[in-house]
Specification:
Length: 138
């Protein structure tokens, strides 16, 4: 017995109910996006507001001692006040990373600057935070 498939030709209506803010959020996100023109580099928001992207950081400490990790972070902050630092724990080691560099060249320059003060430096690729925007009085 052959099977015959028939498509129904009746038409209906679909009503989409959504919050009005969704359109405004989508429009705002579209205006903040800056196309990099390169498929390997993720899009970065203009002005550093909101989204993060991938970049580089310099690892300045790796070891099992928590107090040493926080001491290294404090020392680095005292020497480089405007630069962000990050501590992470992956058993059994603590790691201290410094900076939010968009290019490997920027991270390499910082690593060269830190060579005398810290041992075991190397560059890691990580999700970075956008740079801080200086407030202007207009």
């Amino acid at each position: 017995m052959p099977m015959i498939a028939r498509a129904q030709t009746t038409r209906g209506t679909v009503e989409i109910i959504k919050d009005a803010r969704i359109d405004s959020f989508a429009a705002r996100r579209a205006t903040l996006k800056v196309s990099g023109g390169s498929s390997s580099a993720p899009a970065v928001s203009s002005g550093g507001a909101g989204t993060s992207s991938y970049g580089y950081r310099v690892q300045i400490f790796n070891g099992p001692n928590r107090k040493s990790a926080f001491a290294t972070q404090e020392q680095f902050i005292n020497e480089h006040a405007g630069m962000r630092t990050y501590i992470s724990y992956s058993a059994p080691n603590y790691k201290v990373h410094a900076g939010d560099f968009r290019t490997r060249l920027e991270a390499d320059r910082m690593m060269q600057e830190l060579k005398g003060a810290y041992t075991g430096l190397f560059i890691i690729r990580a999700k970075i935070n956008p740079p801080k925007i200086a407030a202007t009085d207009d």
